[in-house]
Amino acid sequence: MGESRQELLAWLNDLLQLNLTKVEQCGTGAALCQIFDSIFLDVPMSKVKFNVNTEYAYIQNFKILQNTFQKHQIDRPVPVESLVKCKMQDNLEFLQWTKKFWDQHFAGGEYDAYGRRKGSGAPGTVNTPVAPTGMRTSTGAAKTRRAPTGPTATTTRTRTPLSGGSFPALQQEIISLKENVTGLEKERDFYFLKLRDIELLLQRAVEADPEIEKDEEGLVKQIQHILYSTEEGFEIPAETESQGDDQETF
């Protein structure tokens, strides 16, 4: 029998210096990519996106994982379609298998998880970085970390100038946000093209047999209703308005 959810999360957070609270969060593919990076040290972590929340972005992460499997001849299919749904059972089973594989192939030694994913667009709000742990073995035992207490905890707040070290973090967050926008735009275009293909198929069918469009209860009319319906209150902006004012406002 494999490890429990709590044991797996403790091992995962300790290995990768993350703060995951649910096994379902592995459905983004990012943590799984880094587990295999800890084994092979050749996963392109700069391309792995941690701070994402769309299935399209998850699939991009799993493509990187599948390429790693292919490169190292790992004979195990990755059930991407079920994992990206972020369901507990599917992700638990795959994580249990991943842990067994890691136990068998991790060479031991220090793995600087935070340093490896610095270029991956993973901000501190998702991953709370800590100092790299020392020598690790395949047991993956979790270590207890306590928040600092004492004189530094004060209720008095004063304005202090931004330190030079904060700017790289802000720049990294901006880059991450831009990448998220790019991912959303790609996802939008992906589904738009699918809808456009459906629309073209309907047009060809109607051109071949105009009578099918006259049936108000027919399949063609139902699909057209779905394609062209809008939500209440939605209005298509006039082109003249969007083209008439190109100046930025502040």
Write the layout of secondary structure elements.
Elements: H1 5-16, H2 30-40, H3 55-71, H4 80-83, H5 88-105, H6 113-116, H7 166-208, H8 219-228, H9 239-244
Written description of the protein model:
- The chain is an all-alpha fold and 250 residues long.
- 50% of the residues lie in helices and 0% in strands.
- The protein contains 9 helices and no strands.
- Helix 2 (30-40) runs parallel beside helix 3 (55-71) and helix 7 packs antiparallel against helix 8.
- The termini are far apart.
Structure in a nutshell:
This protein is mainly alpha-helical and about 250 residues long. The protein is about 50% helix and about 0% strand. Helix 2 runs parallel beside helix 3 and helix 2 packs parallel to helix 5.
Entry keywords:
about 250 residues, mainly alpha, 9 helices, about 50% helix
Uncertain runs with pLDDT below 50, 5 residues or more? 123-160, 239-250
Query: Which percent range fits the helix content?
Result: 40-55%
Structural class: mainly alpha
Q: Calculate Rg over CA atoms.
A: 24 Å
Strand-and-helix sequence, N→C? HHHHHHHHH
DSSP helix count? 9
